[in-house]
Design a protein that fits this description.
This protein is mainly beta and about 425 residues long. The protein is about 5% helix and about 40% strand. The chain has one domain: Methylamine Dehydrogenase, Chain H (7 Propeller). The longest helix is centred in the first third of the chain and has 12 residues.
């Protein structure tokens, strides 16, 4: 029988898949969303006001070939998704769909370098790809790293298993890709000899290879700006490290954190970031609430300082990351309870139960927040010191079993992407488009 501890760990890895990303309304130059949580800047400058009366109307839904737990990414009105197919995930698929009507434009099939039985305890197309003007770069947990142009032609591909050995881990890998203007960062936090690569997006060749954290993680590398310079954060299993993204050199290490195997650090201004941690984790022990909070990275002369600005008292995270907005920080725990805290000192402002638990990260929408709940409910609330629901809709009927394959307890809403006044939501087997009115 699968143990409760192992079950919790399996659930935790899936959190990293549940990512929600958003596009600003009415700003054409910013309607492309290029990576997991858009590099942590999961907010949007759009006209939604706290006083708005909103309506959410589903306009189309389409079935996806295969099953996947990654977020879609969008470029020039085209939605890109990744999925797996087969009893042992023999096939990897990258597909492009038209935002206007959901019609599939093209699909590319790859062979899995290391097939593994497809069960609910093993990741399925979990890493979210990155996209830019040249095309899309994808990473699958079986070791495939590849790039395609926007018309579906393969630009380059690599077999990381052949190059660096098997990526053994209990429940697969789900760390999404992070990118800079010319490089993509690929984190393989496997059981032995974990590593992270910086890869040239044009050629697919390595810029550098460095050690990983050395512990369990399903989080994603995150670029943080400290004193005008970027650092690459890796968070997992009781540790956070900061790397130089140009060389891979470790700049600092921070220990004594618990439950941080899933939430990804969310950058704030001034070298600070929001850190989420889950309950029930074996990683690092201790009180998970105390590991949720704001961490500050700074440097005096040649000495790095990494310390908490404040810690939560009872708010914890689930599978998504916390967000900060309008002087408040928001955390959603495993039971689907939303905590709003004062962003300056972490004092609790209110708590409120949502429609269900969440496997995604809340996203800022002007003066509102969008919550994509695991059960397919989308909720938009006013971002303020009192909880106020602005809009809500259910994407599928209760009892729908079509999306259960590869998930726990029924269909799972893994991601929702807002482009202008439209939401594209993704569960494992389907895409939905919802109009905001």
């Amino acid at each position: 029988m699968f143990s409760r501890t192992a079950f919790n760990s399996a659930c935790s890895y899936l959190a990293a898949l549940a990512v929600l990303v958003v596009f600003p309304l009415g700003t054409q130059a910013e309607t492309n969303w290029s990576s997991f949580q858009n590099g942590g800047q999961n907010g949007a400058a759009n006209p939604i006001k706290a006083s708005d009366s909103l309506e959410l109307i589903k306009t189309w839904e389409v079935a996806l070939d295969g099953y996947g737990q990654s977020s879609p990414v969008v470029w020039n009105q085209v939605i890109y998704t990744t999925t797996v197919q087969g009893k042992n995930k023999e096939k990897y698929l990258v597909a492009a769909h038209d935002l206007a009507n959901g019609k599939k434009i093209w699909s590319v099939e790859f062979k899995n370098p290391s097939p593994r039985e497809s069960t609910v305890y093993v990741s399925k197309a979990a890493p979210t790809p990155v996209v830019d003007a040249a095309g899309i770069v994808v990473h699958f947990e079986g070791g495939l790293l590849a790039a395609c142009s926007h018309d579906g032609k393969i630009r380059w591909q690599r077999n990381l298993i052949e190059e660096f050995g098997a990526a053994q881990s209990n429940h697969g890998l789900s760390s999404s890709l992070e990118q800079s203007s010319d490089s993509v960062f690929v984190w393989v936090e496997r059981s032995e000899a974990p590593y992270i690569l910086s890869v040239d997006k044009k050629t697919g060749k390595d810029n550098w290879k460095a050690d990983g954290v050395g512990g369990t993680s399903w989080a994603t590398p995150r670029l943080l700006t400290v004193d005008g310079q970027q650092q690459l954060l890796l968070s997992g299993s009781g540790h956070i490290v900061g790397l130089d993204p140009a060389s891979g050199k470790q700049l600092w290490a921070f220990d004594g954190i618990a439950g941080n195997t899933v939430p990804t650090p969310i950058p704030l201004a001034g070298g600070k970031f929001l850190m989420g941690a889950t309950t029930g984790s074996r990683d690092g022990g201790g009180n998970a609430a105390e590991s949720n909070g704001v961490i500050h990275v700074s440097k005096t002369d040649d000495q790095w300082s990494v310390k908490y600005v404040w810690n939560c008292e009872r708010a914890t995270s689930s599978f998504g990351s916390p967000v900060a907005m309008n002087d408040l920080a928001y955390f959603v725990n495993r039971s689907g309870v939303l905590f709003a805290l004062n962003a300056a000192d972490g004092k609790e402002v209110f708590s409120q139960r949502l429609a269900s638990s969440m496997w995604a990260t809340p996203v800022k929408l002007g003066e509102a927040l969008l919550f994509p709940c695991k059960n397919g409910t989308l909720q938009i609330i006013s971002a303020g010191k009192e909880y106020r629901l602005l809009a809500e809709t259910q994407l599928w009927e209760n009892g729908d079993t079509e999306g259960q394959r590869g998930s726990f307890g029924g269909p799972v809403l893994y991601a929702a992407v807002v482009i202008e006044d439209q939401i594209v939501a993704r569960r494992g087997d389907r895409l939905f488009k919802i109009q905001i009115k």
